[in-house]
Amino acid sequence: MIVIAVLFVALVLVAHSYLWYRLVRRTTGPGRVRKTLTWVLAALFVVLVTTFVGTRMGLESWVAWPGFIWLALMFYLVVFLAVLEVPRAVAGVLLRRAERRQEPVAAPEPVAVPAGAPAPVEEAPATPAPVAVAPMSRRLFLERTTAAVAGVSALGTVGYGMTSALGDPVIEPVKVALPKLDPRLNGLRFAVVSDIHLGPLTGVGHAERIVRMINGLEADVVAIVGDLVDGSVAELGALARPLKSLESRYGAYFVTGNHEYFAPEGPGEWIEELGELGVRSLRNERVEIRHQGAVLDLAGVNDLGGAASGDGPDFEKALGGRDTSRSTVLLAHQPVQVDQAARHGVDLQLSGHTHGGQITPFNLVVGLQQRVVAGLAEVDGVQVYVTRGAGFWGPPVRVGAPPEITMLELRT
Question: Which residues cross the membrane (predicted)?
């Protein structure tokens, strides 16, 4: 955590330095305005670092809101300014060429007139040429225009992203064909949700909305695939109580995500709390889902984040010794866990963790670390469905990856 904190502060400092150069240094002259904007940017840096540290200490939401919103704005300001660097540089080159072509015209030398000669007829003065804009003003106009375009674009993107993140998740209908599926299990439906991230910015309404939408699907099984909370039971227990109202034919099941291991006490308290709310945790274990006289194995493994504390995934414990002629659905928070799932003959893995990238273009970065970013794919013979998650982490912003609850139907 110390390494992550130092890296985060260093990146934020670099980003703020770049923003100061582009938005303050290049758009203002020495004086009061530049000093004021410099202090504003410095204050925003302090707010952001305070938010990052404060959320780890359980500070209230009024601390988190301004910091996380500025984090999103800062990110998109950097992105848009970086994208505009090339057209700005091209415009600067064209501007310098235009300035070189505007060379000053020399004044005509006086003509000597001999004594007694008639005075030369003065011609009517020519219409004065328009006064050219000073070269420095043109450059300043270019810099301010670039800053304005980046600012408007960032504000619009973050505003749209907040509307998406704080609104209702979309319902994603997905049908998955399993070769070994007993025909009597045809049509068995899973409501899959992940990365709810109950925390200081969500409030109890976030869980209430998700529960209402899941219940409206009338699913046979509810699968909560990790990262339910961002805090302790003492801090966030009240926000999770709506989960007691979850409805399904064969129950609701949960596996840990990496965020459940961030708390010093680990996931133990939340496992007990969820049990009291009627949600069963699959801790490297499996259960049998009996439907219309047929059986499906539903297994769950702990997240990789628990390995450091001896509470990591144990695929042999969860999947060993089962009847391999039956189809098996595995709940595993991170898509990368499919590598081990394939070795144990799993038919379908349900995962989350990626948020679908949450904020474009992070989806490109996530793809470097996880086998699947979002949606249905096949990896090493195992079908993997990765939900984008119903919540958000950090900034209450989703761009290009709207929150989702999946209605997944098994087919023969």
Answer: 6-24, 36-55, 67-91
Residue written as tokens 């982490």? 393
Start-to-end Cα distance in the chain: 46
Strand 328-331, strand 294-300: pairing: parallel
Residue 292 to residues 42, 144, 177, 185, 298: CA-CA distances in angstroms?
A: 64, 68, 18, 7, 16
- What is the per-residue pLDDT across 209-236, written as a single tens digit (0 to 9) for each? 999 999 999 999 999 999 999 888 988 9
Residue linked to tokens 């129950």: 251
Cα maximum dimension of the chain: 129
What angle separates helix 32-56 from helix 2-19, to the nearest 10 degrees? Answer: 160
Give pLDDT tens digits for 183-204: 999 999 999 999 999 988 888 9
Looking at the chain, which residues constitute the CATH 3.60.21.10 domain(s)? 169-411
**CATH 3.90.25.10 is right for the domain spanning 169-411:** no
d(CA 238, CA 349): 31
Q: How far is CA 239 from the centre of its chain?
A: 22
